[in-house]
Specification:
globular, two-stranded antiparallel sheet, mainly alpha, 5% strand, 45% helix
């Protein structure tokens, strides 16, 4: 096999362990550099501030991205891919294991065979005609592999190697279609398809330890950030024309992509990563009332909510905490609302003293429930990590695995957790997480609102030292997060991690500070924040590959 294209025959290691609306307008981020500003400033440099240079992780396609990349092959059943968060550090970072790679190899064989069963099937798959002996279809196949499966990545000799694989397959199999099948099998198992390869190249004027991503690599990084899938032809054409290494050309493409309906997929992927929920329906849970129909609708409810908060006017960060949701007749009946009827999800205003937007979205409340009673510690952990960027201390080595058998059982869920948290060994972590979780005690494990627990009134009060506020219930907590600098800074940090693929806390701190200042200037506009992220140097560069000088 030629050197340029190779099957992934073993697990690849990681590189390191360590407001505008859709379509234009708004604050421009063109020309931003890697300097920093103090939080809240609009342009003042932070003396001596420089972003840490880290290796981005070599990221493979996750399950949702792989599904999108294989859409042209029809319905696909994917193997279980290792979970690698784009926002939260995982040590050691997960790899594609030999077992997973073997399953992917079987999938590649099945898909390649599926679209080469006959001339008619192959013609429909590629949109070509075999009337000329297949020459046009062969050329279109090579172009399909490079543009769609390799996402525009073409090295010297790539076409020749693919054509050689075709010739070998045709010779061994005895037909044109066997040659096409061999090319697709190879491509679907290659590093170029399974991994998001970003090597970069040296650029004059750039720091010697940094390389600038090529136009094709930028196209791939942009498309996975904004669409959660590979680039389209227009983006690849812009990359080949050098437009993605130019500030104005890059911003023009980013705004075009944000105005495209596919941007909804990328935004939804971010919020699911943020809340620790896999793309697609959530697990039904233990309560028998949570049918797969209900949890599937809850997933759609969350997706509709974050889509509206991001793309519809005014489209700012605070919309994430507004007491509204999207429900249909089935969900309205389940929640006990006198809500809309019918099967289509519709916007619905909620009681503002009870509900707090994303804080009280049932999808993540259900996904975080592992018993028949709410777990305020785990709920508080998710909120503190996702919305406040609060790092919880690791568990002490002598932490008891279960509460003492003689522990009395008070009446309410909150009292049980308060008694457990009174243990000095447990108190430090619980003090950071439990108050946020207690604010959600009005919501049971099904995400439905309740006034009492065990026949007693719910106590949803608490205080956050990080926020410096007292709160009573989910709605109060949500709005205080929305108005806080802590929450706004965390939101910028989470998008920075998601976009740059660098989860080290100090990897892009100066960039985060500059983005935070501009975020405030844009009146917390989320789309302007996303545009700004793509203009900053950490998004466009990577550490020079090891061993190169």
């Amino acid at each position: 096999m030629a050197a340029g294209l190779s099957l992934v025959v073993m697990a690849c290691g990681q590189v390191s362990k360590n407001g505008a609306r859709s379509g234009g307008g708004g604050t421009s981020f063109a020309g931003a550099d890697t300097g920093g500003t103090e939080a809240g400033d609009t342009g003042r440099e932070v003396p001596g501030c420089a972003d840490a240079v880290t290796d981005p992780r070599l990221r493979y396609l996750d399950s949702s991205q792989l599904a999108h990349e294989l859409e042209s092959f029809g319905e696909v059943t994917l193997p279980a891919m290792p979970v690698a968060s784009a926002i939260y550090a995982t040590e050691p970072p997960p790899e594609l294991t030999p077992a997973t790679l073997e399953q992917l190899a079987e999938l590649a064989k099945e898909l390649a065979s599926r679209v080469t069963t006959s001339d008619e099937v192959f013609e429909k798959f590629l949109g070509c005609e075999m009337s000329d002996g297949g020459a046009a279809c062969r050329e279109k196949l090579v172009q399909f592999v490079i543009s769609r499966l390799f996402r525009g990545r073409e090295q010297e000799g790539t076409r020749a190697e693919l054509n050689q694989v075709f010739d070998d397959g045709q010779l061994l199999g005895g037909s044109f279609l066997k040659g096409a099948q061999a090319v697709l099998e190879l491509a679907l198992q290659s590093r170029e398809f399974l991994y998001r390869i970003e090597l970069g190249e040296p650029v004059p004027g750039l720091a010697p330890n940094l390389w600038r991503l090529t136009g094709i690599e930028m196209a791939s990084r942009l498309s996975f950030l904004l669409w959660n899938r590979g680039p389209d032809d227009e983006l690849l054409d812009a990359a080949r024309a050098g437009e993605l290494t130019d500030d104005s050309g890059l911003e023009q493409q980013v705004r075009r992509m944000l105005a495209d309906p596919r941007a909804v997929t990328g935004v939804r992927h971010f919020y699911r990563e943020l809340l620790g929920i896999a793309d697609g329906p959530i697990e039904p849970g233990l309560d028998p009332a949570l049918t797969s129909q209900i949890t599937g609708l809850m997933s759609e409810e969350l997706d509709s909510f974050v889509t509206h908060a991001t793309f519809d006017a005014p489209g700012d960060y605070r919309q994430l905490f507004v007491p509204r949701t999207w429900i249909n007749g089935t969900l309205a009946d389940f929640y006990g609302f006198a809500g809309p009827q019918g099967g289509e999800l519709q916007p619905w205003s909620l009681e503002p003293t009870r509900y707090g937007g994303i804080v009280s979205q049932p999808a993540w409340l259900v996904a975080s429930s592992h018993s028949l009673n709410p777990n305020p510690t785990f709920r508080g952990f998710i909120l503190s990590r996702a919305l406040l960027c609060q790092e919880v201390p690791p568990e002490p080595p002598d932490l008891p695995s279960t509460p003492p058998a003689s522990m009395p059982l008070p009446a309410t869920n909150r009292q049980r957790f308060e008694q457990h948290a009174s243990d000095p060994i447990c108190r430090t972590c619980h003090d950071a997480m439990d108050p946020l979780g207690f604010a959600l005690e009005h919501f049971d494990t099904t995400g439905r609102y309740r006034e009492t627990d065990a026949g007693m009134p719910i106590d949803a009060t608490g205080a956050s030292a990080l926020l410096g506020v007292w709160f009573d219930g989910a709605a109060d907590l949500a709005w205080k997060i929305a108005q806080s600098q802590v929450g706004q800074r965390c939101f910028v940090q989470q998008w920075t991690r998601f976009a740059y693929g660098r989860v080290a806390a100090d990897a892009a701190e100066c960039t985060r500070q500059r983005l935070q200042a501009r975020f405030v200037d844009s009146d917390l506009n989320v789309l302007d924040l996303i545009v700004g992220l793509t203009q900053m140097e950490p998004f466009r560069t990577r550490k020079r590959p090891d061993g190169l000088k």
